[in-house]
Amino acid sequence: MGVTKTDLFTQEQNELANLAKAFAHPARVAILQYLLASNKCINGDLVNELGLAQATISQHLRELKNIGLIQGNIEGASMSYCINPEKWQSVQQLFNGMFDQIENCDPGECC
Amino acid sequence: MGVTKTDLFTQEQNELANLAKAFAHPARVAILQYLLASNKCINGDLVNELGLAQATISQHLRELKNIGLIQGNIEGASMSYCINPEKWQSVQQLFNGMFDQIENCDPGECC
DNA sequence: AAATAACATCGTAATAATACGATAAAACGA
DNA sequence: TCGTTTTATCGTATTATTACGATGTTATTT
After folding, report:
1. Which nucleotide is the nearest neighbour of B27, by CA and C1'?
2. What digits encode the pLDDT tens for the residues A54-82?
3. B10-97: which CATH number, 3.30.1370.10, 3.50.50.60, 3.30.2000.10, 1.10.10.10?
């Protein structure tokens, strides 16, 4: 690409964009939904659930973990992942903080 | 990339991912915030506000329009863009539908 | 009509994101 | 100890995304 010009934007804008990236792939959405439904999971669960290779799942899990949406605990030979509830709620609030600004919108103007 | 394997995922997962992509770039977040604050804008406003080239802004506007988050009306020689409030609210509900599923999470399990 | 203004689109260069096979590392069981 | 299981990481091929100059189109102005 041309590289994204991060310095042109506010910290909030960059943060929102980075968080949105976590949800911007159906595999990661599927992983998060799976975690929401089953509280936790291991890599192998997802390999069976989704049709992706183990390396690919691991890569998506790492991204979600880097962003902070999920956390992983070692559990014997396997790795147990679950959602980070504090981060989850802060992300929800950040998104709703943006969504709710539609209230200030004047319908007579355009929308 | 390897191409994203859309057929592996549910329609909801693909839809959520596509919507998230709209927010997954700081320039588009900035455009949406600008629209929320000023109700409407034209391409030229954003060229001044952000530091990006006119062609780049136009490209981001087109993506937001294709997703349905914004709409554009011809206004003389210029193009007036604004947020599509119905779509906006449906997107908020879709995201919150996912966020709210954290309620079913059992803290004793892992998180 | 000619010049100007405002966008959209095209073409393309540069970079980010996906996917996966192969391999490495760590824990467990026989 | 040795093989098995599970996950992470590396390397790399492929595709998507950004950015922008150049150009075309439409409307406005002079």
Report:
1. D18
2. 999 999 999 999 999 999 999 999 999 99
3. 1.10.10.10
pTM of the model: 0.93
The whole-angstrom separation of Cα A11 and Cα B90 is 26
Q: For residue A23, give the nearest of B68, B66, B99 by alpha carbon.
A: B99
Which residues on adjacent β-strands are paired with residue A73?
A80
**B11, HSE (Cβ side, Cα atoms, 13 Å):** 0
Q: What is the pLDDT of residue B70?
A: 97
Non-local (6+) Cβ contacts of B75 within 8 A are B42
In whole angstroms, D30 C1' to B63 CA is 37
B105 closest CA partner among A74, A61, A42, A40: A40
Considering only residues 33 to 72 of chain B, which have any Cβ-Cβ distance to chain A shorter than 8 Å? 33, 36-37, 39-40, 50-52, 56, 71
pLDDT at A108: 75
| Cα atoms in the Cβ-side hemisphere of radius 13 Å centred on B32 | 31
The whole-angstrom separation of Cα B102 and Cα A91 is: 12
* Per-residue tokens: B76: 């003389």
Number of H helices, E strands in chain A: 5, 3
Across B47-61, average pLDDT: 97
